[in-house]
């Protein structure tokens, strides 16, 4: 008897709370969810490679410098193309001998907010260390490090730019070093930030910024469809690795480095969803051509196997719910806003 009364009271309380949760404009109260999605106020720079204007400017020049490739045929922007959200449209990146690489070129948008581990399978530790592989890999820029340093050291403009960006004296040799090339490139890449999207205006209180389908999609994303379990926060990634049931048996992903872990087998890094609608194809291997194919994969629950994430399961979405999820992802588009990477660089770290 006693617990029945308590149970009844609890049910009544729930009804009252449920009623309160509907705001006066007829929409659910999403205040708590919105708090997770606010854009950051500053770009994070690490203590061991802080922001410095001349270094960022030098990094920008190097990012577009063909002399960093042995045959002068490639730059970082050959694959990370600014006008294509710092990726390309190839399912897998192109080698310089006509072949393809194992992975699709990831976007560099919001790379400053990725902590520590980079690459689809997490092969890189720290943004500064990433450049070493594309610069030196045969099939890519194919550049021996000593030759790279030698080339830049014979160019007076570069010698002056390195001396300005790195005022500390060097123990031996000139101001150009491989480590400094990597530090300058990383500083520039941290300026690659996606601009405000309709979704951000909605989060900030403009109730008309999103259409009803996108709003329903947001609720699905955070609710029934469970997408926010991994695509979390304003950059829509947890920076972690999961098997969402895409990869073929041969593609080990993070599991390559952790052969004894079931959970990391076929696990790839959660990509950001900023500007996602306009940069197909999708997934680490570019195997899905459209967002509709991506949503269908999640609806099926991908490949059911022991490594598959516990957050992935068949969703049984209706056609309207699938369309709503896509409408939501479309609302993450910044309409080509040119962020700090495109702007003149001043003495203070630019705002994201
Ligand atoms: C052939 C095309 C190509 C070129 C040229 C290229 N990249 Fe990449 N980049 C890729 C691919 C493919 C990956 C994914 C590699 C992996 O996960 O193993 C990648 C990954 C990255 C990442 C990690 C992104 C993340 O989300 O973890 C960064 C940072 C990066 N590249 C920066 C650069 C820089 C700097 C240069 C120039 C020095 C460069 N890239 C040149 C294709 C390219
Ligand atoms: C268990 C974590 C997890 C969940 C839950 C999840 N994702 Fe993903 N998502 C990932 C990972 C990891 C990848 C990359 C997988 C790969 O390349 O093999 C990815 C890739 C994507 C991509 C492709 C992005 C690109 O640039 O290639 C889209 C779009 C996407 N997810 C949307 C969604 C939606 C919509 C949902 C909910 C229905 C969802 N995700 C649920 C982890 C997750």
Short structural summary:
The protein folds into 2 domains: 53-193, Orthogonal Bundle (Cytochrome Bc1 Complex, Chain D, domain 2), CATH 1.10.760.10; 195-330, Cytochrome Bc1 Complex, Chain D, domain 2 (Orthogonal Bundle).
Please, could you describe this protein's structure?
- The protein has helices at 2-20, 31-35, 53-63, 127-130, 132-136, 145-153, 156-165, 178-189, 198-203, 212-222, 291-300, 319-330; strands spanning 117-118, 124-125, 241-242, 268-269.
- The chain has 352 residues and is an all-alpha fold.
- It folds into two domains: 53-193, Cytochrome c-like domain (Cytochrome Bc1 Complex, Chain D, domain 2), CATH 1.10.760.10; 195-330, Cytochrome c-like domain (Cytochrome Bc1 Complex, Chain D, domain 2).
- The strands form two sheets. The chain has a two-stranded antiparallel sheet. Strands 3-4 form a two-stranded antiparallel ribbon.
- Helix 3 runs antiparallel to helix 7 and helix 3 (53-63) crosses helix 8 (178-189).
- The longest helix has 19 residues, at 2-20.
- The radius of gyration is 23 Å and the shape is globular.
- The protein starts with a helix and ends in a 22-residue tail after the last helix.
- Residues 1-20 have low confidence and may be disordered.
- The structure holds heme C (2 copies).
- One heme C binds at residues 225-227, 229-231, 242, 244, 246-247, 268, 270-271, 273, 276, 282-284, 291, 294-295, 298, 309, 311-312, 325.
